[in-house]
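Milestone 3.1: sequence recovery, worked example.
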């Protein structure tokens, strides 16, 4: 059985490893990465890197490599590839499972502002922050953790931004931006220190879910920092969803007849 895992997440690497554990049923696993990150963390087993060329390209790849099952374990915000996976699976008549870690939920003491897009997040910033305090900029200081690809949405914002990303972002981006190159997992202690050191007024995050980047939410709660949370796009209609690596592995094992 040949499984193609569309990856780029912690869970996709964990699933690739789980399916190839010694003693597991014989499953050939290929992981696919988009190629966005210069030095990606590589999953166990075969890896291919780069776009397929839309739905047609993915269908072609699935057929040419005799893929028996497709797992969309991409990031919850990687909307295009998830849509392509749904279309390609239907066209090639290959079963598809989406692996999506659960989203975050607000806890007592959180001041969350949920928005539908990065553009709405940018607009929401104007009403937030503590920039009115003596000695502070009137526009506030924003910790932006939504990744380097969507910075254009904030390009016209007057606030000061701390942008954390794996690789260096490229313009357009806000005029007043400090870049911090780093890759999770992050610790609570580290996030507390970061918020304090940069006198952060507002945190902006996608609802990525998972543990690796969650400590920033607790640090914000403790510091009374409001959080702008970008809601997830929906999983394409009709696609079956697993929320844990174990559940996805069981789905594959079931199909492999193990
Ligand atoms: P996207 O907008 O959904 O996809 C854009 C295009 O990139 C797709 O049409 C596809 O090109 C290619 N692509 C995306 N994921 C791919 C994969 N796993 N293997 C092969 N090609 C892929 O994706 P994105 O938001 O730019 O994210 C790119 C990758 O980074 C994803 O794999 C995702 O898991 C990871 N990631 C994304 C985020 C995020 O916030 N969006 C965060 C962390 C990690 P073709 O049409 O040519 O096939």
């Amino acid at each position: 059985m040949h499984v193609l895992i569309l990856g780029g997440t912690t869970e996709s690497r964990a699933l690739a490893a789980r399916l190839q554990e010694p003693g597991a049923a014989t499953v050939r696993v290929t992981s696919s990465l988009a190629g966005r990150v210069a030095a990606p963390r590589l999953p166990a087993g075969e890896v291919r890197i780069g776009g397929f060329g839309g739905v047609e390209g993915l269908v072609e790849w699935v057929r040419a490599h005799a893929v028996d099952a497709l797992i969309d374990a991409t990031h919850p915000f990687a909307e295009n590839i998830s849509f392509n996976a749904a279309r390609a699976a239907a066209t090639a008549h290959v079963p598809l499972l989406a692996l999506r870690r659960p989203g975050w939920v607000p806890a007592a003491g959180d001041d969350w502002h949920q928005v539908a897009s990065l553009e709405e997040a940018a607009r929401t910033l104007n009403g937030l922050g503590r920039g009115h305090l003596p000695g502070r900029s009137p526009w506030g200081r924003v910790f932006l953790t939504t990744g380097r690809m969507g910075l254009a949405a904030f390009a016209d914002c007057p606030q000061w931004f701390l942008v954390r990303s794996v690789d260096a972002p490229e313009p357009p981006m806000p005029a007043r931006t400090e870049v911090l190159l780093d890759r999770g997992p992050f610790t609570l202690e580290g996030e507390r220190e970061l918020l304090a050191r940069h006198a952060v007024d507002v945190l902006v995050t996608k609802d990525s879910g998972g543990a690796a980047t969650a400590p920033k939410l607790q640090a914000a709660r403790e510091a009374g920092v409001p959080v702008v949370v970008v809601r997830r796009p929906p999983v394409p209609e009709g696609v079956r969803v697993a929320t844990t690596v174990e559940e996805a592995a069981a789905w594959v094992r079931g199909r492999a007849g193990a």
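The first helix runs from residue 10 to 19. The helical segments are 10-19, 54-64, 79-92, 118-124, 188-197, 215-223, 245-256.
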